[in-house]
Amino acid sequence: MDYSHSDAELIRQPIGYWSWAAYEAVVTRTRAALAELGTTQPQWWVLAQVARADAPKTRAEVFGLLRNYLGTGPESMEAEIDATITAGWIVEAPDGRLSLTPEGRTFFERAAALQDDLWAQRHAGISDEEYLTTLKVLQRVIHNTGGRAWHH
């Protein structure tokens, strides 16, 4: 791969720009691929939370985890949860617990396979060590600037 600048020049490049450009590239690619399946990235997050839960989560629990994820916002997240129910992928029990329907399980498996493919695409030519270092550096930058990531 050809890099944009020499190492001496890259060291002076703004992390804000490059982290934003990486975010834009990853999110744009992910959202376009999920749209081809007929879903949105926030709907995928809902499906993944419900499908991978050890015990059924309530709507409030799923909403609490995702309400501001990647700047989605509470109103949008409620609508995305509703959309997964309307699509027939998830049902909501009277106590608010969410579970996948058989169609939802099938769709989740298709979307999860796509996410695996996207992960492999993003990580091509990047060792686990390089990836780990990158995430640690980004987390340190967040910490150093007084920022907070969603999981804090």
Helices, by number, come to 7
Q: What is the strand content?
A: under 5%
Question: Whole-number radius of gyration?
Answer: 18 Å
What is the percent of helical residues?
55-70%
Question: Explain this structure to me?
Answer:
This protein has 152 residues and is mainly alpha-helical. Helices cover 64% and strands 4% of the residues. It contains seven helices and two strands. It has helices spanning 7-10, 15-37, 41-51, 59-66, 74-86, 102-123, 128-144, and strands spanning 90-92, 98-100. It has a two-stranded antiparallel sheet. A hairpin with a 5-residue loop joins strand 1 and strand 2. Helix 2 packs antiparallel against helix 6, helix 3 (41-51) packs across helix 5 (74-86) and helix 3 (41-51) packs across helix 6 (102-123). The model has no long low-confidence stretch (mean pLDDT 91).
Summary tags:
single chain; 152 residues; mainly alpha; two-stranded antiparallel sheet; 7 helices; 2 strands; 64% helix
